[in-house]
Amino acid sequence: MSGTRDLDRRYVFHPFSMAQTHEQGGAQMMARSAEGCWITDDDGRRYLDAMAGLWCVNVGYGRERIADALADQARQLSYFHGFSSMATEPAAILAQRVIDKAPDGFSKVFFGASGSDANDTQAKLVWYYNNVRGKPEKKKIIARDRGYHGVSVMTGGLTGLPGLHAGFDLPLPMIRHVSAPHNIWTRHAGEDDAAFSARLAQELEDLILAEGPETVGAFIAEPVMGAGGVIVPPEGYFPAIRQVLDRYDVLLIADEVICGFGRLGHWFGSPATGMTPDLISVAKGITSGYAPLSGVLVGDKVWQVISGAGAAKYGVFGHGYTYTAHPVMAAAALANLDIVEEEGLVARAAEMGAYLNTALARAFDDLPIVAETRGKGLMAAVEFARPTAEGWQRFDAAQTVGPRIVRAALEDGVIVRALPNGDAVSFSPPFTVTPEEIDLAVSTVRKAAGAVCDALRA
Ligand code: PLP
């Protein structure tokens, strides 16, 4: 074990891996440098990063242009703030570029530093909006099982993964969840997209009515769910959801932390999935992970209320972070967007996404424990389950099927990711990924899955 691995094991708190690996053996991999889609560890071993870090390094690693933008901006103005009466130039330019790319009806951006803080801000916007409108009871926020919205006190509860609630008394009392549109686990046999969408919209309506529409403020959803297993909504799902929300005066928040800035082969994921949100959260792809930056895009409907005369009684919208409008982060985002635009990477994400999804369908077709391969743009997953006469059944969590496949792939030099408490393995490479790199990632995971499948049979 290298010296830095030992330091990491002794001193760095790795919450998610503490029980499983960290206290025992230390990190599975210690990254030292990276270029394109490849990471080199402290032993000089190279790994193909088929996850773009955590769904974020869209332009690939090692971009001199972003490194230069960071350094130049740090020399010129290393820090200043921008949520009160102060401002920074890079953040102003970035806000305009973000709004230009956003769906119609958005005119303001609030900057933070993480996806979690963006979704926290959304909750405060919803509450403030309803307070100003004289509807202070409208505070509940409905999210979806398996949705991932962050880990803060508010967003850890919005996240619909029970493993992230355990031990923290989450969710907070004003949070509710409905089913995700999951083809294997929530779609009924023989149900087509229209019937599936209608039933899930009905489930949402039933919940709103049971809670009392006067208590429900917003519904939050990712256009395509990421960490919950790359769940692509069926045709007609978001329009059906929107009709219900409109009926009960409930806002729609699109969590585009993964989908925003090209991953689905479109600048934003909501138009690409039929979603018409009132509020949008972005992070990750806005800087390709070169600097921590998030954005909350405020739709005109909400903006008019929170900036209108009715808000005067609260003085100001009392919210903002030390790092809001951070000039260095904004400079990284501007250089990142230049690269995405100049190299046509949104179209490339669509093209390579089609290649990846076809390759997955072909490679996993013959493996009996594969319930589904699915994806949209450069987000894809393989769902592993046990085939039975009654249909698919989940493996026991103790069998750790997904994590075993991911670990075996890592040992063969490919980084993919398992759903935190399930058996889907996800792929989300940089937009610059080549067909050869996709083939390598797919064949490596196929080999790992084949070995796990054989071990399960033995
Ligand atoms: N929303 C989505 C859709 C995410 O995927 C994530 C992180 O993966 C978050 C929010 C939280 O972002 P962060 O980890 O930057 O707080």
UniProtKB/TrEMBL annotation:
GO cellular component labels: cytosol
Q: Which region is the signal sequence?
A: none
Entry's Gene Ontology molecular function annotations: pyridoxal phosphate binding; transaminase activity
**UniProt keyword Mitochondrion, yes or no:** no
Needed co-factor(s): pyridoxal 5'-phosphate
The record's section on NCBIfam families has:
PRK06105.1 (NF004767)
Protein's name according to its UniProt entry: Aminotransferase
Organism listed in the record: Pseudoponticoccus marisrubri
Organism placement in taxonomy: Bacteria, Pseudomonadati, Pseudomonadota, Alphaproteobacteria, Rhodobacterales
